[in-house]
Amino acid sequence: MKSGSDSAIRIKVPRDVAPGTYWYHAHLHGLTEEQVFSGLAGVFVVEGLTERLPANLRAIPDRLLALKDLQLTHGAIVTKNINSGAPTTRTVNGLVNPVIPARPGGTQLLRLANISADIWYRLKLDGAQFHVIAEDANPVGKVWSADELVLPPGKRYDVLVRWADAGTYRLRTLPYSTGPVGDNYPQRTLATVKVAGSPTAPVALPASMAMSPHLENDPIASRRNITFSENTKTNQFFINGRQFDMQHVSEYVQLGTTQEWVIRNTANEEHPFHIHVNDFQVMSVNGKPYTARSLQDVVPLPVHGTVVIRMRFRDFLGKYVFHCHILAHEDSGMMAIIDVTKTGRPPQGGAAHGDMRGM
Predict the structure, then answer these.
(1) 335-341 and 249-254: which strand pairing?
(2) Which of 155, 221, 293, 359 could form a disulfide with 257 if both were Cys (CB 3.0 to 4.6 A apart)?
(3) What is the spatial distance between Cα 161 and Cα 355, in angstroms, rounded to a whole number?
């Protein structure tokens, strides 16, 4: 979109799109971090998740918690030369430490979305557990519970929560380190929960929200090795030894096949792997089998670690990107193009599918 212009945009949502919490942001390569940090990001919800809940949970409070940070200098938001490890103000829906009301025993749906440019969250909810019903807008095959949830940039969880007793509780982000050359984040209070009023009798939570993914049973058309690396001296970031080139396709994939990708991180910091359009099933982390409750579109790559994923390329022909979702790293080269074709080879005559300018 040109500076000073506006455009009317209509998005037709297919009926088979998974219900849950999504987000959108500016994606102009080289300026993505700056523009998202400055505020060009938001959240939207595809409805239908609550309809999958038991009848007595369909009218519960439904709250979006969009997590984002900002840094201030002389009263203005920093937009240039952003240091993701510098002191930062954490906000929820643009507010500092908002109040969330609740009733004792009452269940709520919290839609957690990290729409920050670079920073991570390690969430802890005092007095309650997170019961995950969707991950990255994919309803889970098995509802699972956690005391803490780690959200790298771009990550979303839809969770059910409830507090047994009246009182004041906190939603916090706990101390978190992304590795020896990464960032170290201190504890912060994000929101305050005030539980008061007449108690509500707790109701049973669902056991499942969808079918579990079973890509382990698919025939694998090909296995590919993807390596994330960096040069800390030059602040350059690479996928398979290359920095992002809008004219270079890293991976050609055949439509209708399932692929396995072995993604290695050789860096001394974590990188969140993200792919557009096509969600994936995590198969293992550092050689240990991973029990996937759903598909997802963001997964942390451990320091000097390996994550194996599988993807079905069923619906979309053309080009899109995969990248590190720390946007400073993406802008500095850690992004690549995938092209899904009917044959799994470059289009005849080199004709391009799609247009990467609006990536």
Answers:
(1) parallel
(2) 221
(3) 42
Phi-psi region of 217 (alpha: psi -120 to 50; beta: other; left: phi over 0): alpha
Non-local (6+) Cβ contacts of 111 within 8 A are 21, 43, 45, 62, 63, 64, 65, 156, 158
- Nearest C-alpha neighbor of 205 from the set 299, 114, 142: 142
Distance CA 308, CA 135 (A): 18
Q: Is the pTM of this model over 0.85?
A: yes
Inter-residue contact 277 to 316 (CB < 8 Å): yes
Tokens of 141: 């095959």
C-alpha span between 215 and 310 (Å, rounded)? 7
Q: For the purposes of burial, counting CB atoms within 10 Å of the CB of 290, is it exposed (0-12), middle (13-18) or buried (19 or more)? A: middle
Give the chain's length.
Answer: 359
User: What does the pLDDT look like over 297-313, one tens digit per residue?
Assistant: 999 999 999 999 999 99
Q: How far is CA 190 from the centre of its chain?
A: 19
Cβ count within 10 A of residue 321: 20
42 and 172 belong to one structural domain = yes
Q: What is the pLDDT of residues 208-237, one digit of tens each?
A: 999 999 999 999 999 999 999 999 999 999
**Residue 108, domain extent:** 20-195
Q: Is residue 201 part of a domain?
A: no
